[in-house]
Amino acid sequence: MLKKTINGCLFLSIIVAMALVVASCGTAPNTNSNAGKNGSAEGAVSSNQQPAETVELTISAAASMTDALTEIQKAYEAANQHIKLSFNFGASGALQQQIEQGAPADLFLSAAVKNMKALVDSQLIDANQQTNLLKNELVVVVPADSTTPIDNVADLTKAEVKTLAIGIPESVPAGNYAKEALTNAKLWDALQSKSVQAKDVRQVLQYVETGNADAGFVYKTDALTSDKVKVAFAVDAATYKTIQYPIGIVKATKHAKEAEDFYTYLQSQEALDVFVKYGFSVSNQ
């Protein structure tokens, strides 16, 4: 009887000892639980890793680039989820003045070289961080239902054309190009009495779309965005300076790397294909 009791106690002791060994093994630290293959730290910081902070880039861009940049924005933000692009569209001259006065901007996309040059000359944009990206064409549009035959700038003097919309030449590049073309045709002064000036090229387009103007000078790219207007004629390219769209990084940017990344992306084939889709052509510098 005593022997059986001793054997039972011994068996129970062995079971308890084995349980303790197993328990101690189960609490041993697993030094590889967060490591990737070959002991790398890839994927290691999971629950404690903070998501990348969202960086908002402010881009001051010519109004005529609105549609193309809106499409580019969707693609770029989808591929770079920590980046938010905020566009300030307007007349290039007005945008230039805003930057000169200290308005926040990371990049400047102009519809005229002179506005970019002014910022480079005032050392607000580095000459090595700006480039001519695109080209455009100047056209005259009329309401889609217009029956007045207008084939050239001389036809703008017809009595049927009661109101002619032009961007403010001092601040709107399209207006300046229009003034140059009309001056070369010796028609600028003759058309002043029927001209109405707009704050940017998109407002010119709106005036014609709504019938508040019988004709207007816009870019080819603007004309392609609306089914409420039609192109009456393309303005003779020999009568105005080549329309170049330079882009540049503003020195005052607080997000230099992110601004440079987007600046580089705008010059990529993927982005250029979008611009071409909306009627721009690629600049040859």
Describe the structure.
The chain has 285 residues and is α/β, with parallel strands linked by helices. The protein folds into two domains: 55-136 and 244-282, Periplasmic binding protein-like II (D-Maltodextrin-Binding Protein, domain 2, 3-Layer(aba) Sandwich); 138-234, 3-Layer(aba) Sandwich (D-Maltodextrin-Binding Protein, domain 2). It has nine helices and eleven strands. Helix 5 links the parallel strand 6 and strand 7 (195-198). Residues 1-19 form the signal peptide. Keywords: Metal-binding, Signal.
Salient structural properties:
D-Maltodextrin-Binding Protein, domain 2, 2 domains, 5-stranded mixed sheet, elongated, YvgL-like_PBP2
Biggest sheet details:
6 strands, mixed
Number of strands: 11
Distance between the termini: 106 Å
Give me the oligomer status: single chain
Percentage beta strand: 15-25%
**Global outline:** elongated
> How many helical elements?
9
Order of secondary-structure elements: HEHEHEHEEEHEHEHEEHHE
Strand order in the largest sheet: 2-1-3-10-4-11
Mean of residue pLDDT values: 87
- Summarize the amount of helix as a percent range: 25-40%
Q: Return the structural class.
A: alpha/beta
What is the correct CATH architecture of the largest domain? 3-Layer(aba) Sandwich
Number of domains: 2
Family: Belongs to the bacterial solute-binding protein ModA family.
Protein name: Molybdate-binding protein ModA
Signal peptide: 1-19
Keywords: Metal-binding, Signal
